[in-house]
Write a structure and sequence with these properties.
Elements lengths: L1 E7 L2 E8 L5 E5 L1 H5 L16 E4 L4 H4 L5 H11 L6 H8 L8 E6 L2
Antiparallel strand pairs: 1-2, 1-5, 2-3, 3-4
């Protein structure tokens, strides 16, 4: 199992987990979920439920991944399998992303 904290405008909004079977779970933090002033991180992950499950990386997070030669370079330089979407995400979305979301790996 691997986990990453989802940061929205420098505040912890939720937790993204890749389970041992390869599926994914996104969970809004309790405080974030119950605060009506905090927005959903994505239109595809509305705050109408606190936990989302998927057999593949959620499209919102998948769209944050580099493509083409950038993806190849990231994978080569960091020794990440090109099919390891979670690994690529936690490597590339730590610091500088387009938009308000950052992904920070949690050590379990």
């Amino acid at each position: 199992m691997r986990q990453a904290q989802v940061i929205y405008k420098k505040e912890a909004a939720g937790l993204l987990t890749q389970l041992d079977d390869g599926s994914f779970v996104f969970t809004y933090n309790d405080q974030w979920f119950h605060d009506t002033n905090k927005p959903a991180i994505s239109l595809t992950l509305p705050k109408i439920q606190q936990e989302y499950k998927s057999t593949y990386l959620f499209p919102f997070f998948y769209n944050m991944l580099p493509e083409g030669s950038n993806k190849q370079t990231v994978c080569f330089e960091n020794r990440i399998d090109t099919k390891d979407h979670f690994g690529i995400l936690i490597t590339t979305a730590r610091y500088d992303t387009i938009g308000a979301i950052q992904i920070k790996k949690l050590d379990i």
